[in-house]
Automatic annotation (TrEMBL):
Pfam families assigned to the protein according to its UniProt record, in alphabetical order: AAA, AAA_lid_BCS1, BCS1_N
Name this polypeptide is given: Mitochondrial chaperone BCS1
Native organism taxonomy: Eukaryota, Metazoa, Chordata, Craniata, Vertebrata
Gene Ontology molecular-function annotations: ATP binding; ATP hydrolysis activity
Entries under InterPro entries matching the protein: AAA+_ATPase, AAA_lid_BCS1, ATPase_AAA_core, ATPase_AAA_CS, BCS1_N, Mitochondrial_chaperone_BCS1, P-loop_NTPase
UniProt-listed Gene3D superfamilies: P-loop containing nucleotide triphosphate hydrolases
Amino acid sequence: MKTNKASRYGRKWIRVERTREKQMVDLHTGTPWESVTFTALGRDRQIFFNILQEARELAMKQEEGRTVMYTAMGAEWRPFGFPRRRRPLSSVVLQEAVAERIVDDVKEFIGNPKWYTDRGIPYRRGYLLYGPPGCGKSSFITALAGELGYSICLMSLSDRSLSDDRLNHLLSVAPQQSIILLEDVDAAFVSRDLLPTENPLAYQGMGRLTFSGLLNSLDGVASSEARIVFMTTNFIDRLDPALIRPGRVDLKQYIGNCTHGQLTQMFWRFYPEEPASEADRFAEQALAVHSEISAAQVQGHFLLHKMDPAGSIDNVAQLK
Ligand SMILES: Nc1ncnc2c1ncn2[C@@H]1O[C@H](COP(=O)(O)OP(=O)(O)OP(=O)(O)O)[C@@H](O)[C@H]1O
C-alpha cells in the first residue's frame, strides 16, 4: 500500500511517500513496517537529518516518565495498553530496608558489566519475590522499572501455548532495557501436570513448556545487555530447588503482610494532614484486631474512607 503527500517543513516543500510492507512487522512493537521516502528540491541534505532528529525527540518524549509493558504475542513482544505513568518507589511501602536492598542490588548489577565479563559469568541476574498476595510484589517491580527507566516484559508460565522453544526465543528477543517478569511461577507446573488427564487433546500437535525447558531458557538468558529476570510466587515451598538455585535466582526477598511501621507510613501517605499520633493509633488498632493485613487490604479500606481518617480508625475492625 502506497500513499503520497506533499508537506511543508520550514520553508521547503517535501514529498512524503509511505509504503506499508505487507509481510513484515516490528518484532518489538507488532506494528507493520513502513518505508517513508522524503523528496525535496535543492542541494541541502541537512533538512533530512533535521526531520529525523525531530522525530526521534518526539518519540522519546512520548515515553518519557512512562513505563512500557510488553506481553508475548506469538514469537514477539508487543506493548499492551498505553505506557503507564511511572509509579514512584516511595508509593510502595515495604518493610524497612527491603526496597533499598533490591534497588541497590539491581543498580549495582546494571552498573558493572565488566565485572561479569572479566570473570566469564553470564551477565544476568535473577530475583524472586515471595509472600502472601496483595503485599506489593508486582507494584514494587513496576516502580523499580520506572526508577531504572526500564520497561517490563510480562509473561505467564501457565500460558498453554508456551513451549520450550517459544520461551527460549522470547527471552532472547526481549527488548533492551527491560525487566522480564514471570508471575506466579509456582502455578505453572502444578496446574500443567493436571491438565493432560483433564483434556488429553489439549496438547496434541503443540509443544508445551517442560520444567527442564524452563531451566534451560533461564540459563540461556544472557547477552551483552544486563538481563534481569524477576519471578514472583505466593508459595516459595512449592518451587523446585533447581529453579531458585543461585545463578537462576540470585536474590530472594520475602514481601510480607504489614508491620506496624508500614501501617503508619501508609496512613501518613493517604492522610498527610493528620498528626503522627493518629497514624500510630491506626496501626495499633489494626494489629489489635487483625493478625495479618496486606497492603492491598489497607489501601481498599482507606479508599472506603477517603475523606474520613478518623472513620478509617474507628472502623478498622471492618478492614477486609
Ligand atoms: N506495599 C504496598 N504499598 C503500597 N500499596 C500496595 C502495597 N502492596 C500492595 N499495594 C496495593 O495493592 C494492590 C495489589 O498489589 P500487588 O499486585 O503489587 O500485590 P502482589 O504482592 O503482587 O499480589 P499477588 O501475589 O496477588 O500478585 C495494588 O493496587 C497496590 O497499589
